[in-house]
Amino acid sequence: MGIINAYDTSRPLITPDLLYEKNDICDICIVTFSINVLNNILEHYNYEIAAKASSANGEIPIYYLSDYDVLFYMSPIGSAVASTTMQEVQFITGARSFIVFGSCGIIDRSAENKIIVPLEAYREEGFSYHYVKADRYIKIRNAEKVKEILDNNDIDNITGKTWTTDAIYMETINKANMRKQEGCICVEMEASGLQAICDYLKMDLYIFFFSGDILSHTWERADLGGEKEKHKQLNCFEIALLLLSELRKGQHGN
Fold first, then answer.
1. CA 156 distance to own-chain centroid
2. What does the pLDDT average to over 19-33?
3. Whole-model pTM?
């Protein structure tokens, strides 16, 4: 059959209600992939553990940040596990909107040192094909809203397509060139899967990236795990809080 035939609308055999208790804790959740951001939250913010997702690899605590009335967790990396975790978090917390940020590789230097708002994601992973019909790209539905908020707050940003892959060591020269020709400005590992699960469950995804390494004819390594990247990650958490504030204003018609 192949992965492009994976979409099927018959009843799933395993669902979150068989594993977890459903709750309605909070409507918005911020998601990071960074241990630096998580450690900063635990050190400087008021929080409580509201729920936990779990697997054989261990538990994923979901924190409630009381000063901001928002949930927060650190996601595993990679489309399948990140998207499955998001589905579980939705069930056990009731969250319907997810603000997600992380690093990405740059394949178009115009995106370097800017906040990147993806408009569409090239689906070079397997997860999304189980949740939405097969296609080359998936539309990132709230990209315009994210860009509007960034623009209104004078945050330098750029929009374009992203390339979601599940094989970090097979980002080849030919594939990078093809994606760039199609309008992709960056590459990462989660966007298409996260948008697919949000489409499937009728949730809202607000996703943005910051620039990391450069993928051109050679690899220009970023400050992965260093102080520069840590600063970018923490800055993105502040941007996520800004998005949260603006979304809350929209909910209340202010």
1. 19
2. 96
3. 0.95
